[in-house]
Design goal:
This protein has 437 residues and is of the alpha/beta class. 42% of the residues lie in helices and 14% in strands. Bound molecules: uridine-5'-diphosphate-xylopyranose (UDX).
Length: 437
């Protein structure tokens, strides 16, 4: 099929992956610089495996990028994959969706080929029906369901494993305005090897599924973080508890890693947007609000542990291992490293940090307020305290001989017994020995 994908951000990796399944794809973006980079087979975002998929499909002639909306004219399906950031009050900012819908509508006006316009960006319930369709109709002078089809097809890709997740979905959710839209969208996903669940539904339910799913995952994280904080006080290890409860198939093991909370471009934004959307229809979303409240509190738990280990942090040199919001990404958006480092600086500590990928992005946030180290070894050398903030694999095998200070493990990546056998003071989120037991 002929496909257009609008948006060169994270969701836009859909373009490269769909091309890999044999579709003819054009990726449309605003930034000429980004488009040039992509056409050379390089990804503008760091995502393992994406460069190879881009190169393979560009050289096979199945994928190219452009700034020109004219290229959607020949498409069967047009995906809207632009960003939907938060407004200051947590509600969703639809300006990019609007701008892109207007551009699509301008092309629909003069094009005779029937197309399905599909929203892949995360948008709150009723956005496709009450916002996108009216914009498309107004600016094209055409009628949804008659002159063009409409779909809502949320993505569930995780950063760092986006390419793998695309090829190996648990499910694909297809919301359609009508049967023709749903059927056309379904055929796009026909060549997948992996068996997955196909959920076909209406536009608004598809939107709601995405928010409910991200809220459920965020809820598990806040739940286990609260349990972790309680565990510590009773000298119980949250890892043992999480493992045991996860053995119940009704609960399962995944997304029960206690730590310093969730960050990234999705969970905080999406839970907040759902809170806003709930309030707009007269629901008081106390549960969702609590998920966020626990998440805001959790980074400060790590700073408390640091103070318990090292006393007053004023004038202390603190090695922060990890800056990205999680491993295998350079993304600093909503990273829990930010409130932690700000709190350390506020307490008068000297912060030095290392991250395998996110240092450049971190410089835009912290500037010269912190020191940047080229390796984990350099970072911990001579430090008064070491704090692990991101769950990178390379921190799991930190050479404990190179560490001469207490370690505060925000992601429970180290083996506490091993750290102690090296004579180190070890404290971690949900660790049973935090209070010397
Ligand atoms: C998430 C969803 O998983 C994905 O389906 C959706 O499309 C986009 O949002 P992502 O933000 O890339 O993906 O990362 P994810 O792996 O879900 O982790 C999010 C945050 O939760 C990270 O900060 C991570 O460190 C944290 N996390 C995750 C935990 O603290 N504990 C866990 O058990 C899992």
């Amino acid at each position: 099929m002929k496909v257009s994908v609008i948006g060169t951000g994270y969701v836009g990796l859909t373009a490269a992956c769909l091309a890999d399944f044999g579709h003819n794809v054009v990726l449309i973006g605003r930034s000429k610089d980004k488009i040039d980079v992509i056409n050379q087979g390089a990804s503008p975002i760091y995502e393992p495996g994406l460069d190879e998929v881009l190169k393979r499909n560009i050289s096979a002639g199945r994928l190219h990028a452009t700034t020109d909306y004219k290229e959607i004219d020949d498409s069967d399906v047009v995906f809207i994959c632009v960003g939907t950031p938060s407004n200051d009050d947590g509600s969703i900012d639809l300006s990019q969706v609007e701008e892109c819908s207007i551009q699509i509508a301008e092309r629909l006006k003069n094009s005779s080929k029937y197309k399905i316009i599909v929203v892949k960006s995360t948008v709150v319930p009723k956005t496709t029906k009450n916002f996108v369709i009216p914009v498309l109709e107004k600016h094209s002078g055409k009628k949804a369901g008659k002159d063009f089809g409409v779909g809502m097809n949320p993505e569930f890709l995780r950063e760092g494993t986006g390419v793998y997740d695309f090829v190996n979905p648990d499910k694909i959710v297809i919301g359609g305005l009508d049967e023709k839209s749903t059927a056309t969208l379904s055929t796009l996903y026909e060549n997948f090897d992996k068996k997955f669940h196909r959920v076909t539904t209406d536009l608004t339910t598809a939107e709601m599924i995405k928010y409910a799913q991200n809220s459920a995952l965020a809820a598990r994280i806040s739940f286990i973080n609260e349990i972790a904080n309680i565990c510590e006080k009773y000298s119980v290890d949250v890892k043992e508890v999480a493992h045991a409860i996860g053995l119940d198939t009704r609960i399962g093991q995944r997304f029960l890693s206690a730590g310093i909370g969730f960050g990234g471009s999705c969970f905080p934004k999406d839970v907040n947007a759902l809170i806003s959307a709930a309030k707009a229809v007269g629901i008081n979303p106390v549960f969702l609000q609590t998920i966020m409240e626990i998440n805001e509190r959790q980074p400060h738990r790590l700073v408390e542990l640091a103070k318990e280990a090292a006393g007053d942090l004023h004038g202390k040199t603190i090695a922060v291992l990890g800056l990205a919001f999680k491993n295998d990404t350079d993304d600093m958006r909503e990273s829990r490293a930010t409130p932690i480092i700000n709190s350390l600086l506020h307490a008068g500590a000297n912060v030095r940090a290392h991250d395998p990928r996110a240092m450049e992005n971190a410089k835009e946030i912290f500037g010269d307020k912190i020191e940047y180290c080229n390796s984990k070894e350099e970072c911990v050398r001579g430090a008064d305290l070491c704090m692990i903030v991101t769950e990178w694999d390379e921190f799991r095998n930190l050479d404990l001989n190179s560490v001469k200070c207490p370690v505060i493990d925000g992601r429970r990546v180290l083996d506490p017994e091993k750290a102690k056998s090296h004579g180190l003071i070890y404290k971690g989120i949900g660790y049973k020995g935090n209070f010397g037991v």
